[in-house]
Known about the structure:
Blueprint: H1 5-8, H2 12-26, H3 42-55, H4 61-66, H5 71-75, H6 82-99, H7 103-120
Helix pairs in contact: 2-3, 2-6, 6-7
Protein name: Globin
GO molecular function: heme binding; metal ion binding; oxygen binding; oxygen carrier activity
Cofactor: heme
Amino acid sequence: xxxxxxxxxxxxxxxxxxxxxxxxxxxxxxxxxxxxxxxxxxxxxxxxxxxxxxxxxxxxxxxxxxxxxxxxxxxxxxxxxxxxxxxxxxxxxxxxxxxxxxxxxxxxxxxxxxxxxxxxxxxxxx
Length: 126
């Protein structure tokens, strides 16, 4: 069995950079920032890191600590409209670009992130 995507792209350090860069953008975003109730984005950063690590073949810590991801259910309390989705994707695009992954790895990661973002939309209200 070959290496997981997680291992191929550099493991935890790569995902830490991705998530940290993403939350740097979220911190100043007037639409997304209010969706994070904690004063410090650190807990959200850790949750996303653990989720992405597990999804891509790293440790299963996310499920051990939080159970099944249930992404749509966990986001149901937030108004995730196309504007929020597009802002999320813009910050994530900046984060992915900062990684400077090989083209196939970048495309694989970005494809998943786009699909996930579109799946989280739960309203078309402004």
